[in-house]
C-alpha cells in the first residue's frame, strides 16, 4: 500500500511539473520573424512630373487648341481687297493663315500691320472674334448699332466718332471705340463689364437692349 501511494504521489508531481513547463513555454516571447522581401511582385509608383504634376492624367481638357497663326487652312477667304490698305490684292501671293482662315494681302507690309493688330482688320474680312478667343465667319448685315453709342470710350476714355469706323462685330452689334490702341482687345477680355455703357444686357444667354 505504501508503494502504491508513493507511486501515485510521484506521478502527480511529474504531471504537475510538465504542465508548468508547458505554460511557461507558451508565455515566452517569440522572436520577430523578418519578413521576406518579395522580388518582382510590386511595381514602383509612377513618378510625378516635376514641372507638371498632372502630366499623363486625363483632366478632361485635352482639346487641341487651334493655332492663331500659320495653322492648317480650314477656309480660304479669297478676299480680293487688302484688309489693311483697302487696295486690290491682284495677283499677289502674299497671305497668312489666321485661326484657320487664309487671308490675302497686296504686299508684305500689310501682313506686318495685320499681325501687329489683327482685331482692327477683322470687320472688313467679315470675321468676329469671340470671347473665348476663337474667330468665326459672319455676315455683317446681321449686325446693327447698339441702343447707345457712348460719347466717351469706356476703355480709354477718348471721344467716340461712329463715322470713323472704329468698331468690331460682337454678338449681333457693332461695338464702337475711340481708337485701336488696345480698346477692342480690352473689351473682348471682359465684355459684360461694358455692356451697360452701350445700352445692352445679357439675358438668358442672349445680348439684348437693356430694359429701362
Structural commentary:
The protein is an alpha+beta fold. Among the domains are: 66-116, no CATH class; 132-212, no CATH class. Helices cover 20% and strands 15% of the residues. The protein has three helices and nine strands, in the order H-E-E-E-H-E-E-E-E-H-E-E. The chain has helices at residues 2-27, 108-116, 183-189; strands at residues 75-76, 95-98, 101-104, 127-129, 135-137, 167-170, 173-176, 200-203, 206-209. It has a three-stranded mixed beta sheet, with no helix packed on it. It has a two-stranded antiparallel sheet with strand order 4-5. Strands 6-7 form a two-stranded antiparallel sheet. A hairpin with a 2-residue loop joins strand 2 and strand 3 (101-104). It starts with a helix and ends with a strand. The relative contact order is 0.08.
Q: What summary fits the major beta sheet?
A: 3 strands, mixed
N- to C-terminal distance: 127 Å
Number of distinct beta strands: 9
- Helix percentage range: 10-25%
Counted by DSSP, the helix tally is 3
Short description:
The protein has 212 residues and is of the alpha+beta class. It has helices at 2-27, 108-116, 183-189, and strands at 75-76, 95-98, 101-104, 127-129, 135-137, 167-170, 173-176, 200-203, 206-209.
For this entry, give a set of tags.
212 residues; alpha+beta; 3-stranded mixed β-sheet; 20% helix
Write the layout of secondary structure elements.
Layout: H1 2-27, E1 75-76, E2 95-98, E3 101-104, H2 108-116, E4 127-129, E5 135-137, E6 167-170, E7 173-176, H3 183-189, E8 200-203, E9 206-209
Parallel strand pairs: 1-3
Antiparallel strand pairs: 2-3, 4-5, 6-7, 8-9
